[in-house]
Amino acid sequence: MVIATTGKYTRPILPTCVVLFMAYAQWAYSYYFCYSHIYQKSGDKSSMIAFLVITNTLWLILLLSWVLVIILGPGSQDVQVNPYDLDCYASNGYRLTKNTDTVSLLSAERPTYEDSLYLLNPPDIFECDPNGLPFWCSACSSLKLLRSHHSSLTTKCIPFFDHYCSFIGSTIGKRNYGPFMIFVICAEVMLLFTSITVIIYGGIWNSLNAAFIVLVVITGTFAILVGNLLFNQISDLFNGETTLERMHRIRWKKSLRAKTPQNNMGNLTSYVNTIHPYNEKLRIVVALQPDDLPYNKGFIENWNSWFFDISKLKEPDQISHYSYTMFGIKFKKTIRQRIEIGEYKIFGANDGLRG
Fold first, then answer.
1. pLDDT for residue 96
2. Please, which residues bridge with residue 127 across strands?
3. What is the DSSP pairing of strand 163-165 with strand 170-172?
4. Between 210-239 and 13-28, two packed helices, what is the crossing angle to 10 degrees?
5. How far apart are CA 179 and CA 158, in angstroms?
6. Which of 9, 52, 140, 144 is deepest in the core (most CB within 10 A)?
7. Which of 288, 295, 311 is nearest to 244 (CA)?
8. What's the mean pLDDT in 253-260?
């Protein structure tokens, strides 16, 4: 999948508007509310200082985190990962389903590989297309591992591709996810703090101060929007998924509820290619369900996965192995249960999923 973004020249417009709005809102809050209302009108100097220190500290952290999001960028899968050596598995699957040489296949050991500078040994499980083949990026000439998607903005595959944020003008990926979360949290706290303090200390309900009412409405509205984003990000951390993966699951579920014909759902259904549990010379393709969470390892492990330094992975086989370790134990057990009841197809066979 190639993730497209907005035009080159229109992309900065929304972030610029956001900066101008936030700067004006902070100035209006600091001058009209803190200085003019709290200090000059009410004479409460200590509250004015406290409010100014809190909001301007949050404002500074917010700006610094925004700058870090832009400077760091989402990261990229810089190491080219060669295709997996799957020909022998495909051949074995075809022969087995054609009832040729069945006995030798079922008693065979796992195939061995000669040293190759091109093909990689496939891991025990990996994401694949309906035919059981791993996803390939023709632009990068590499397998798309580490939950990567190709970005038209960076012209590279981005590991842990989360989403493109139009409001801050940057793609969010593995490298800049930390400062992005700091940005969202600070923005939400600052918006809530501004709204609440103006409501409590501004006397807007008694005097119907138009300026304060507008400030509360605007900051309150943005607090709801940013709060929804923060809630979704935290929910994604609990589920071990990215925004892109969550949106894919939502579209998938909607297509099922709408009873979309199966031939129109092929691009929505996800699959994994895994080694056969009873014959290691065969591989099988298992279809996922919309509620499956392949990378969910619990909140702590999910959080830590965002901050593992993938620059340590210098070789293609290291990236391939790490991609395998990203799958959760619960998900692997679920896949094993589906295999036990026959919900799979032999990799290399021409027939559909069993079950």
1. 83
2. 272
3. antiparallel
4. 130
5. 17
6. 144
7. 295
8. 80
**Nearest Cα to 207, choosing from 90, 41, 52, 67?**
41
- Between CA 176 and CA 170 the distance in angstroms is 9
| Region 33-44 average pLDDT | 88
SS3 (DSSP) at 33: helix
pLDDT digits (tens, 9 = 90+) for 148-177: 999 988 899 999 999 999 999 999 999 999
DSSP 60-79: HHHHHHHHHHHHH-S----S
Burial class (CB in 10 A: 0-12, 13-18, 19+), 89: buried
Q: Cα angle vertex 129, ends 125, 133, to 5°? A: 65
Ramachandran area for residue 282 (φ above 0: left; ψ -120 to 50: alpha; else beta): beta
Please choose, from the candidates 323, 270, 335, the residue with its C-alpha nearest in 3D space to the C-alpha of residue 159: 323
Closest by CA position to 140, among listed 75, 73, 81: 81
SS3 at position 109: coil
The 10s digit of each residue's pLDDT in 293-339 is 999 999 999 999 999 988 889 999 999 999 999 999 999 999 999 99
What is each CA distance from 88 to 15, 94, 122, 277, 344, in whole angstroms?
Answer: 51, 10, 11, 17, 19
What φ, ψ does residue 120 adopt, rounded to 5°? Answer: -105, 150
Length of the chain: 355
| Paired residues of 251 in beta bridges | none
Contact status, residue 227 vs residue 185, Cβ threshold 8 Å: no
